Amino acid sequence: MEPLFLYNTLSRQKEKFEPIHPPFVGMYVCGPTVYSDVHLGNCRTFVSFDLIYRYLLFCGFKVRYVRNITDAGHLEGDHDEGADKFAKKAKLEQVEPMEIVQKYSLGFHEVMRLFNALPPNIEPTATGHISEQIEMCKKIIEEGFAYEVNGTVYFDVQKYAQKNNYGTLSNRKMEDLLANTRELTGQDEKKGRLDFALWIKAKPEHLMRWPSPWGQGFPGWHIECSAMSSKYLGAQFDIHGGGMDLIATHHTNEVAQSVACNHSEPVKYWMHTNMLTVNGVRMSKSAGNGFLPEELFSGKHPLLERGYAPMVVRFFMLQTHYRSTLDFSNEALSASEKGFQRLLSAFKLLGNLKTSEKSSFNMEEFKLKCYQAMNDDFNSPVLIAQLFEGVRIINSVNDAVGGVTISAADLEEMKKLYNGFVLDVLGLKQEDTTGHSDELAEQVMSAVINIRKGARLKKDFTTADIIRDELKKIHIVLKDTKDGVVWEKENQ
Ligand code: AMP
Ligand code: ZN
To answer: Tell me: the pLDDT tens digits for 415-426?
Structure first.
């Protein structure tokens, strides 16, 4: 098998993927903060890691994929002083904070299901791992890299930076980091400007609180990922991922916590996805430019001309490499819809292509190019371009044009390849673009075609024509072939 190369944020270059304990791979991805619905930007990151997870499985690795749910400890503005987002939302909706967690966790799972993302092997929650986080805070204090002030525990970044490179992941120097952080005032409890909270003292009104050696409080955001990743994947594991926006603070602090606690770099390969943007602006909860996936599927949003099926949206996302920005537009989605239809139509044709003595193309080379694309840092757009090259071959064989032929053995290979790369790796399902399952559409169309056939047999051409015309109105065309009547969705 050809080696797999992936881009490591830590070394800022592509590296050959060599898991610590092959064939096992430990992969941790920072999951959603469930105080509100996930938007399409969040989904892009999770769909990208779904592609990565699927390809690792496809290559035969035994992956333990852990994706957490942040259900506590997230304060507004990502500072240690802001209001708790869960408590704020609970107050607004007049429910318990854990009802907020449940509501948005269920919503997130449903969206992931619609996008056909495989569930992770473990989905730990921050509130379910309070004791692990407290233990880790205690260890960091013991190691001398954290201190307590009035019930809150801070990580001592200055002290850590004396022996370690704090800006290693973000490639930034301490002087620059300090220059970009506000000066401390007399009201600040922390000693250093860059220090961050590991454990936060609960104010009287704070509902989500737990007892700790430092009194009633709740964990800071960063500690949950260090505690849960090391619990399920060990102190050193293979892949840690998330969106690029997490590099500077969340992941930088995760590295510092783990190194302070375990004296070793926690992660071999750091992987980050680029942002989904709308008119060039990053989609985010705070910017208010976030589409909910349901709005995109139904088309009910002022910026949308119409709705798009989840598989079309997934295809649209995969047509861009995960490390490039992806700008949302109606035009791009429409183009993806057409492309996806073309790919599916060719996929269907594979079932009954006529074979020849020899293939007019080199199947081995074709197959190799698919693997090479994915082995080059999971380059799904290059893989899709290669699959379209296959679509051209399939259509030419079907139409018997250009002298393009395929042998029986190569056809079998091609079917295996398309099943593997389209269904298993890209995770696309054979839905029609309205979001109906292919099976249901086939059943309904088969019934309609039979009714029309019956009408024609009785020489009732008026009914037969009405059926054809009505179908045409919804862009479905009937074609007579030697194997009978088949239906197709027209490209609009
Ligand atoms: P959050 O729920 O805000 O913690 O984000 C969950 C995941 O979505 C994180 O890995 C973020 O980096 C990622 N994310 C947030 N906004 C975007 C965006 N516009 N495009 C891609 N990923 C994003
Ligand atoms: Zn995290």
So the answer is: 999 999 999 999
